[in-house]
Specification:
Distance between the termini: 34 Å
Number of strands: 5
Strand order of the largest sheet: 4-3-2-1-5
Oligomer: single chain
Low-confidence stretches: none
Radius of gyration: 14 Å
Structural class: alpha+beta
Number of domains: 1
Largest sheet: 5 strands, antiparallel
Shape: globular
Strand content: 15-25%
Mean pLDDT: 92
Helix content: 40-55%
């Protein structure tokens, strides 16, 4: 993914989350699963040859019961780590692009260093997974209006 692709994806995510006049870090809370899957589908549409994974972290950022989902985009160039709701942990972060590694395993290791906790691949995003996009959007809207 190039810088422009990251910016377009981030703009799409921000537009999805900004449904109320709340700070982005509050709107991102409790939406990481749905936003990560939705963003993964959007990436798959633009990069059909890439492998898109959801990485799940448990007990992250020092929270006993805190879990989080991010996207790993495995392409010929390497593995991009993308956190579509990064603002819930890093309020002033300007980009959803976290870092890039050579392998999925090294991406999981990088996530442990950045977010702490234990990380694993929880699912792979594919065309069948993406049939649920409307449901995820509805959940995000509902979460942000509560």
């Amino acid at each position: 993914m190039d810088k422009r692709s990251f910016e377009q994806l981030q703009n799409k995510i921000v537009a999805l989350l900004r449904q109320k006049n709340k700070p982005l870090y509050l709107l991102a809370e409790d939406n990481c699963s749905e936003v990560a899957r939705l963003a993964g589908c959007w990436i798959l549409e633009k990069m059909p040859d890439a492998q898109i994974f959801i990485a799940k972290g448990d007990r992250i950022m020092g929270g006993k019961n805190k879990s989080h989902d991010v996207i790993l985009v495995d392409s010929k160039k390497g593995v991009h780590i993308i956190d579509p709701t990064v603002w819930q942990f890093f309020k002033n972060k300007r980009s959803i692009a976290i870092t890039m590694t050579e392998t999925v395993e090294s991406a999981l290791y990088a996530l442990e260093k950045i977010y702490k906790g234990k990380w694993k691949i929880s699912e792979k995003i594919n065309k069948k997974t993406c049939t649920q996009k409307k449901e995820w959007q509805d959940i995000i809207k509902k979460n942000n209006y509560e």
